[in-house]
Amino acid sequence: MRVRWEMVVGGLLWLVHGYLRFLTPHGTDVVWREGLGYSQVVRVDLFVLYNLTGVAALLLTSGGTLRALSSLRTVRRGLVRAARIVALLAVLFSLGAAAGLVLLFDPLTTAGLDLGEPLLGVSLFLTGLAVVTDRDESGHPRWLGPLLIGMGALGLATLPLRPAIYAIGLVPLGAGTVAFALFGAGWIVLGIGLRAIGTTAAHPTPPSA
Questions:
Q1: 8 A C-beta contact, residue 55 and residue 112
Q2: In this structure, are residues 18 and 181 in contact, taking their beta carbons and an 8 Å threshold?
Q3: pLDDT in tens, 1-15
Q4: Do 106 and 47 meet the contact criterion of CB atoms below 8 Å apart?
Q5: What is the 3-state secondary structure (H, E, C) of the chain?
Q6: Which residues have a Cβ under 8 Å from the Cβ of 55 and sit 6 or more positions away?
């Protein structure tokens, strides 16, 4: 299998997104407006810069996950079907985030990213479970299942991460940057590693009796 370049590029974008979104190195892009009940964009250029990387990363990696799942050889087809459905939802949320970016409407972009990221994590976690419970029946390398489960856990951790940082201040901003750096690194490893895996078999191995 060739390198999954959408995963590699998406991983690099997750790295950049974590740095830009949490550390906001060029200043503030949105400000909470009590009267409106949501954050309003105050710097269009920064809003696009900080969020475009995340929107593109979510779209590339969720789309790449769908492609990989369509050819994944595993006896656990039920788990793979569930992972595919959740990955499709992540794609839809990435499109919603993109719409918010075009409309310069922060709630839509933030909701798309905040929900799309953990959904992608669920998809990865289910895929990892499908791989590790195969008991080597499908010939996957030992590192694939644990990597997918670890990445899935990181993706799920993004759901409470933003509230913990911004709403209750329990987590420092740097923690968000580190979490997305690890998430992005995982995608790079996965995208490159998949070229050595025979996941493109035309027919999955039938379940054992």
A1: yes
A2: yes
A3: 455 899 999 999 999
A4: yes
A5: CCCCHHHHHHHHHHHHHHHHHHHCCCCCCEEEECCCCEEEECCHHHHHHHHHHHHHHHHHHHHHHHHHHHCCCCCCHHHHHHHHHHHHHHHHHHHHHHHHHHHCCHHHHHHHHHHHHHHHHHHHHHHHHHHHCCCCCCCCCCCHHHHHHHHHHHHHHHHHHHHHHHHCCCCCHHHHHHHHHHHHHHHHHHHHHHHHCCCCCCCCCCCCC
A6: 94, 97, 98, 101, 109, 112, 113
11-36: b or e for each residue (b if 16 or more CB lie within 10 Å)? bbbbbbbbbbbbebeeeebbeeeeee
Residue-wise pLDDT tens digits, 106-152: 999 999 999 999 999 999 999 999 888 876 656 677 888 899 999 99
pLDDT of residue 82: 95
Asked if residues 139 and 196 have their Cβ atoms less than 8 Å apart, the reply is no
Q: What is the pTM of this model?
A: 0.87
CA dist., res. 117 & res. 61, Å (int): 10
